[in-house]
Amino acid sequence: MPEPPADVAETPPLTPELVFREYAPRIYHLARRLLGNDADAEDVTQDVLLQVVRKLHTFRGESALPTWLHRVTVNAALAHREKRANRQKHENATGDDATLEGNSEPPGGVKLPRSSPAAIALQGEQRELIDRAIKRLPEPFRDIYVLADVEGLPNPDIADMLGMSVPAVKSRLHRARQRMRDALAPHFEEATP
Amino acid sequence: MTLTCEELVDLLVDYLGGELPDEQVDAIKSHVCGCGSCGVYIETYQLTITVTRALPKCEAPLPPSCEARLRAALGL
After folding, report:
1. CA distances (Å), A158 to each of A80, A121, A180, in order?
2. Chain A, window 25-84: residues with a beta carbon less than 8 angstroms from a chain B beta carbon
């Protein structure tokens, strides 16, 4: 597990309550997107928060915390997924991953905007459509797509986090984007002339 | 320099990331001028990234039962 970086900035001390309020939802939603279900996301969030609280005394401010949390959350989510896969193997699972909501059909009739990024405020059903398409991605594609295009991390950071080369990240990201494009393209509004 | 449709698609990550040399950028623009389907493909590929980036990173508070469990685990 990576060590949290020391932060030299003069900022108020971090408390468990502050960390919980500021970061728990973000950890939870990142884990949920990576893992595809609520129960696993909850387990990972608890694991990550316990790690943070144990190491809180090593932080002198919160500016370095988000980056470290990304890394720890991704590591915890991947480890959790591996454990889950091993457990399922043990239990002679059929391989039908019925807990993933993403295996259900996406809602029909939802239209996605053709606007500049700053102008977009997605409605609930639009967010649901995109999130379902993400959940339907095979896991190795989903990890990279979530980190690159939802979280906005640079490719070298993702490569470092996942122990891959940058070209391998780009190649997988491209394939993930192609699958997402295929899923979402029918939903984009008609172009205005 | 000329590109096939397949070659163009393989360059999209670097193209949209602004990591291609000018010569390849020009080749893509030139290809798109004469190939409507690649133009549509690039547009929808880019829109896919745009709408994904518009997803909120923590769009909702924690579910109440989850918050209660986490608070108990952390002693809050």
Report:
1. 18, 27, 19
2. 25-26, 28-30, 38, 42, 45-46, 49-50, 53
DSSP H helices in chain B: 5-10, 12-16, 22-34, 36-53, 64-74
Q: Do A25 and B62 touch (CB under 8 A)?
A: yes
Number of domains in chain B: 1
> Is this prediction's pTM over 0.90?
no
CB contact under 8 A, A46 and B61: no
The question of ipTM being above 0.85 is answered as: yes
DSSP state of A146: I
Please list the pLDDT of chain A residue by residue as tens digits (193 residues).
556 655 545 566 778 898 898 899 999 999 999 998 889 999 999 999 999 888 887 776 656 788 888 889 999 999 999 888 888 777 754 544 444 444 455 556 778 877 666 556 777 888 889 999 999 999 999 999 999 999 999 999 999 999 999 999 999 999 999 999 999 999 887 765 5
CB pair distance less than 8 Å for B48 and A184 = yes
Q: Provide the domain limits for residue B20.
A: 5-74
Contact with chain B for residue A131, Cβ under 8 A: yes
Residues 153-172 of A with CB under 8 A from B: 155, 170
A164 SS3 class = coil
On whether any CB of chain B is under 8 Å from the CB of A184, the answer is: yes
